[in-house]
Amino acid sequence: MNITSSYQSMFRIPELKRRLLFTGLILLIYRLGSHVPTPGINRAALAQLFQSQSGSLMGLYDMFSGGNLSSATIFALGIMPYISASIIFQLLQAVVPYFEKLAKEGEEGRKKITQYTRLATVFLALIQSFGMAAGLEQMGGIVTNPGMGFKLLTAITLTAGTVFVMWLGEQITERGIGNGISLIIFIGIVAAYPTDILNTAQQLASGDMHVIKALVIGVFMLFVIAGIIAITQAQRKIPVQYAKKIVGRRVYGGANTHIPLKVNTAGVIPIIFAQAIIMFPATLGQMFPNVGFLTSLSMAFQPPMPLYVIVYSALIILFAYFYTAVILNPVDLADNMKKNSGFIPGVRPGKKTAEYIDRVLTRVTLPGAVFLAVIAVLPDMMIAWLRVPFYFGGTGLLIVVGVALDTLQQIESHLVMRHYDGFMTKGRLRARR
User: Fold this and answer.
1) Per residue in 23-49, pLDDT tens?
2) What are the pLDDT digits (tens) for 262-304?
3) H-run or E-run covering 245
């Protein structure tokens, strides 16, 4: 069965077809809402501001919002408050016993954490939107009628927009295909690609870019995407065996399985954390332009300066290890295996197993962390050295590739369950038969 047949199979399964159409409808609603402006803001002046801040933290935030922040739409905050709240509660599960207990309670505990995350999203959205309104008022020419009325109206509008986007994402997760929050970020990033392609075509037509240079950049982009796919899917499998148990007349256990340790367990979170910190010196330099030391420090932390590249890369590697340690605890893995009579061949259960998993995880995380650092600094290098007319790589590309693979795997699972060959399991079912 070829790839074309696999695509056709998606619409032969009624449930999968319904989920795909529902997902497409929700994403269409999100994109339509991205054209509804926030009252009281000069959108042209704000767009000019963001053009000068494309490499800053504001530019990163605008990317996550799908360009809604620079366009001053009702979805200007996007899904970032929800992502921030989710990260906060993930970290709390590692340090606060109450949330750690909730996480181990199963479905009911996860529902409570989800409810707390929603409330925290509303709280963060209110603070961020009010602060954004106050900040825009300080920039001349952006707010038409400044005052408390504008602040309150903007806070209510943007918070309502964030809550609606969060609801859309949850609907996709529940009734559609793929992770709804990730797909909303995905569609926002991908929506900017046609403009980038058009700008490149215009440069080629005007002679500003040579055809050979464009081909070299295109081939390089393909290699980068292939590398991201390989790192995203790469994992180290630790074999695990479970001892047989005889309860009455039945035999339980005795299965052989594995623990999959991903090379890039932390995803894009280390880049987000590192970028928030690396932009701090530049922010101080803008706030205090008359202080010579802060101005020099701000210039040193601008891409592609060597200090920026070194510190930025080091922070990404550090946060990759930190976040991996937060979401994957070797001690918990070893304890769960011991409770279920599982063991790693050649390794003693308990403490020795935890030490072994920790050692393997430390070694596996290193190439993933280094790769994240390379991908993060790649866009600035391409713009500075190759004069690429668009922002390629970094957080956006990791999200696009990761979400595309995750959604494809979910579609694949539906196809395989209905005895169709999937995209990545071509011929596997046939071989089993």
Assistant:
1) 999 999 999 998 999 998 888 888 877
2) 999 888 888 878 877 877 776 666 666 676 777 787 777 777 7
3) strand 245-247
Rounded distance between C-alpha atoms, residue 371 and residue 220, angstroms: 16
What pLDDT sits at residue 104? 81
Same domain? For 235 and 377 the reply is: yes
Q: What is the chain's length?
A: 433
Cα–Cα dist 418/343, whole Å:
34
- CB of 245 closer than 8 Å to CB of 341: yes
Query: In whole angstroms, what is the distance from residue 329 CA to residue 278 CA?
Result: 28
Which amino acid, residue 294? L
Please give the model's pTM, rounded to 2 decimal places. Answer: 0.80
**What is the CATH classification number for the domain harbouring 266?**
1.10.3370.10
One-letter amino acid at 309 equals V
Distance, CA of 209 to CA of 218 (rounded, Å): 13
Residue 422 maps to a domain = no
Q: How far apart (Å, rounded) are the C-alpha atoms in residues 220 and 127? A: 42
